[in-house]
Write a structure and sequence with these properties.
The protein has 395 residues and is α/β, with parallel strands linked by helices. It has two domains: 210 residues, Rossmann fold; 100 residues, Rossmann fold (3-Layer(aba) Sandwich), CATH 3.40.50.1100. It has 16 helices and ten strands. Strand 4, helix 8 and strand 5 form a beta-alpha-beta unit. Belongs to the cysteine synthase/cystathionine beta-synthase family.
């Protein structure tokens, strides 16, 4: 009896929904003689407009990359008095912002004659770049070889292999060591014909992807009414490319800040005007933070207006807040960006529009981010607001 009552109450149409249904029934009855497509279209004008603009991804997977939505983060916008917007890069077909870079580094190799039909792509990566490359390589018919530190989870290795990649886990050593996974990837490519190392950290085709796609999309989605942009730096393709585009088209008006986790040198380098490269601590975030200034970042680092240091506590708190307040299931790197956007909005004051990047979802990290045991082990349990701990459902 109780269950039936709940169902009836939950599905009882409101006055507004009854009006909509009545209008729809008039416009789109099952009788073909009374069906009106234009009237149906009028029920969802924005969806129809977007569909017309996007058309068909006629080149398959690769032409579905990009043109992601810009989502207003309602609670943070209300709290800061700013428009805080997140670019939903988790809606790329491979699930992350790295799809853009993956496509551009491969296209760059093709255009330079370094990669021909039947060739092999090689990269050193432990995360989303490898997944993006795997998707693009499958769609274009290339073989993919991935080198990664053997400290990575078996789940990551299995996923890349499932996507068709040949994976070599190797000992985790510093970049300066010739046995570092990046150097091994480079040697593999150099020893083979029709084989290219895409070199995501220092290949500026990565940066170009964001100059030509992400930056223009943000500018047009906001109709040029953007005051600030912030995101973290891993390879630095996103922060550098978007900064270059927005600074150029706004004639320097848009402020750009790099967000940085513990254990990275970017915050101290930018904050000190390039005089310091202090590196303290470590972070639970993946794929962001750096121990050096990459070639993707070098041309544009002087365009940055500043840097924001974001602790792991802030990132974890925002993981849970985004889920509870916005319905967004985001990874820690995405939530570091959201925390940075919040801090930047507070810094700039009410009335501003601040944009950041929602890099990927939490699906690949759920066994940690929502695990009580893992959070306690990392000393981050107290960072989760008490009323949101109900989401930590894993032991």
């Amino acid at each position: 009896m109780f269950a039936r009552t709940v169902i009836r109450t939950a599905t009882k149409p409101s006055t507004a929904s009854r009006s909509l249904r009545a209008a729809y029934a008039t416009a789109a009855t099952s009788d073909p003689q009374h069906f009106s497509a234009s009237a149906v279209d009028s029920m969802n004008p924005r969806g129809v407009e977007i569909a017309r603009a996007q058309r068909i991804a006629d080149q398959g997977f690769i032409s579905a990359i990009g043109n992601t939505p810009l989502i207003r983060l309602k609670k943070l916008s209300e709290q800061t008095g700013c428009e805080v917007l997140g670019k939903a890069e988790f809606q790329n077909p491979g699930g992350s912002v790295k799809d853009r870079a993956a496509l551009y580094v491969i296209q760059d190799a093709e255009e330079k004659g370094l990669l021909r039909p039947g060739g092999t792509v090689v990269e050193g990566t432990a995360g989303n770049t490898g997944i993006g490359l795997a998707h693009v390589c499958r769609s274009k018919g290339y073989k993919l070889v991935i080198y990664m530190p053997n400290t990575q989870s078996q789940g990551k290795i299995d996923l890349l292999r499932l996507l068709g990649a040949e994976v070599y886990p190797v000992p985790a050593v510093a970049y300066e060591n010739p046995e570092n996974y990046n150097h091994q990837a480079k040697r593999y490519a150099e020893e083979r014909e029709n084989c290219v190392w895409t070199n995501q950290f220092d290949n500026v085709a990565n940066r170009q992807a964001h100059i030509e796609t992400t930056g223009p999309e943000i500018w047009n989605q906001t109709e040029g009414k953007i005051d600030a942009f912030t995101c973290a730096s891993g390879t630095a393709g996103t922060i550098a490319g978007v900064t270059r585009y927005l600074k150029t088209i706004s004639e320097g008006r848009v402020q750009c800040y790099v967000a940085d986790p513990p254990g990275s040198v970017i915050y101290t380098y930018v904050s000190s005007g390039g005089q310091m490269t202090e590196r303290k601590g470590s972070s639970i975030t993946e794929g962001i933070g750096q121990g050096r200034i990459t070639d993707n970042l070098k041309p544009d680092i002087d365009l940055l207006d500043g840097a924001l240091h974001i602790s792991d506590d802030k990132s974890i708190e925002m993981v849970y807040r985004c889920l509870d307040e916005e319905g967004l299931y985001l990874g820690a790197s995405s939530c570091l960006n959201v925390a940075a956007a919040r801090d930047l909005a507070v810094k700039l004051g009410p009335g501003k529009t601040v944009v950041t990047i929602l890099c990927d979802g939490a699906y690949r990290y759920a066994d940690r981010l929502f695990s009580k045991k893992w959070l306690h082990t990392k000393g981050l349990w107290e960072a989760v607001p008490e009323h949101l701990r109900k989401y930590a459902v894993l032991d």
